[in-house]
Amino acid sequence: MNKIVERIEQEVGLPGLAAVLAQRLTPTDLQSLLLEVYRLRSNQLLPAAILSNYESNRFVRPSAVSATQFLKWEQIALSQLPQEFETLVLSPVCPLGTNSVVASIDQNWAVATVRNTEVVSDSTNVLALECAVRRRQLLRSNPRSTEPVHLATSHRLLRAQHFQGPQLLSHFSAFALCSAGRDQGHSQFELSTLGMHIR
User: Fold this and answer.
1) Closest to 65 measured CA to CA, from 187, 140, 194, 168
2) Euclidean distance between the first and final Cα of the chain, in Å?
3) What confidence tens digit (pLDDT) does each residue in 38-49 have?
4) Helix, strand and coil percent figures for the chain, each rounded to 5
5) Best-predicted range by mean pLDDT among 22-26, 78-82, 114-118, 130-134?
6) Checking CA distances to 33, which of 2, 19, 39, 82 falls within 20 to 30 Å?
């Protein structure tokens, strides 16, 4: 068990509290409880505390990259896509566990929310989910469908791990591609799609 969690449980006199919250409450009940906790906490805050937090919190400070430069970069990247790709604007959040389950990344690297979601920290995992949904829809219409799905996005990501250096922020943008299709044997789909991605 995490030493910090163990200390907290001992201090409040509720051993096993984290396990109870994680295992015995439904996701919606836990969400309701946490929403109330944060409502009560926010009611105690003053504007000066919000300003202080804004100044010091590494998750909320703006990027040093100008919005104009960033827009130009996105336009160049998106203009280079082959016509097969559909571009998406992703939600800022994805299902809780998207990165730890889909990509086996430690859950602590993502910023979880009290609404059973997490802030997107790797857009390729979200694109993979969307590809799976679209391939599932194609297969429902035609179980023999070989139609591929090619998606792309430029998305702002937020990661919880500490980065060293004044130019490195916890949030940054990344351009991502993801494709899904029927297995053609001998890794044909994977290799041809990888070639498309590289080009």
Assistant:
1) 168
2) 46
3) 999 999 999 999
4) 50, 15, 40
5) 130-134
6) 2
